[in-house]
């Protein structure tokens, strides 16, 4: 229900309605917290949204709630970087290897303490070794790189180019959140960054994008000087 033609209001659905409602609540949050960055205001909108249980994980954090956005205070801990090392240290995830995953986390809002981190996946090609870690505290706008890794084992003979999706569940008192990342087993392409050139090379010798129909994979050929 929102503004419509000629000074009236009306019911519609889709991004035409969702976008102005979200932008309006962001405006309320930024009026209340003028020193916040746009990312902090967006995280406040996200973390105070009402979880829709039937669609959890499919709609971001849920449905926006303007009242909660201007009255509640929560942490908002997100993954800022993912790094890993593998058994033979070649940065390629291969059959039967043990992989150590190091996460960097940033907390955009209220400081959190006694933070429990759980890493999970339903992928049949990996098995969790270390899936639970503990973080004593993380302050507001503080970024921390975990020195203790999550660990998982790759199954025997996985498919080349297979992407494994991971979910990180974050808990601190009544605060619970989740974030996601993915890693690729035996990637079919890699990116070379030398001097003024970045380019993608595939496992069959192709230079540029691995798939010309999907330009989200790889970087193609990029000359940094423009």
Largest sheet: 5 strands, antiparallel
Structural class: alpha+beta
What is the distance, rounded to the nearest whole angstrom, between the alpha carbons of the first and last residues? 46 Å
**Count of DSSP strands:** 14
Q: Tell me the β content.
A: 35-45%
Run of helices and strands: EEHHHEEEEEEEEEEEE
Cα Rg: 21 Å
Q: Count helical runs.
A: 3
| Low-confidence blocks of residues | none
Helix content, binned percent: 10-25%
Topology:
Blueprint: E1 2-3, E2 9-10, H1 15-32, H2 38-47, H3 66-71, E3 77-85, E4 98-107, E5 112-120, E6 126-130, E7 132-138, E8 142-145, E9 150-154, E10 162-172, E11 175-185, E12 189-194, E13 197-202, E14 221-223
Antiparallel strand pairs: 1-2, 3-4, 4-8, 4-9, 5-7, 5-10, 6-9, 10-11, 12-13, 13-14
Helix pairs in contact: 1-2
Give an overview in words.
The chain is an alpha+beta fold. The chain has helices at 15-32, 38-47, 66-71; strands spanning 2-3, 9-10, 77-85, 98-107, 112-120, 126-130, 132-138, 142-145, 150-154, 162-172, 175-185, 189-194, 197-202, 221-223. β12 and β13 (197-202) form a beta hairpin. α1 (15-32) packs across α2. The longest helix is centred in the N-terminal third of the chain and has 18 residues, at 15-32. The radius of gyration is 21 Å and the shape is globular.
């Amino acid at each position: 229900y929102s503004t419509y033609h000629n000074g009236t209001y009306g019911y519609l659905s889709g991004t035409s309605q969702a976008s102005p409602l979200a932008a309006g609540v962001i405006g309320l949050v930024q009026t209340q917290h003028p020193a916040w960055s746009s990312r902090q205001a967006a995280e406040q909108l996200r973390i105070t949204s009402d979880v829709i249980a039937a669609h959890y994980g499919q709609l971001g954090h849920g449905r926006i709630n303007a009242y909660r956005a201007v009255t509640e205070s929560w942490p908002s801990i997100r993954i800022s970087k993912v790094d890993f090392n593998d058994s033979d240290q070649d940065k390629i995830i291969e059959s039967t290897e043990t992989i150590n995953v190091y996460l960097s986390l940033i907390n955009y809002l209220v400081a959190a303490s006694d933070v429990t981190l759980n890493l999970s996946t339903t992928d049949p090609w990996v098995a969790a070794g270390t899936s639970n870690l503990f973080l004593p505290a993380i302050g507001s706008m503080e970024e921390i790189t975990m020195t203790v890794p999550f660990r998982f084992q790759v199954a025997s003979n996985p498919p080349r180019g297979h992407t494994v999706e991971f979910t990180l569940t974050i808990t601190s008192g009544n605060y619970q959140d989740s974030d996601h990342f993915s890693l690729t087993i035996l990637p079919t392409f890699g990116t070379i960054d030398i001097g003024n050139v970045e380019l993608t090379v595939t496992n069959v010798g192709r230079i540029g994008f691995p798939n010309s129909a999907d330009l989200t994979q790889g970087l193609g050929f990029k000359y940094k000087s423009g």
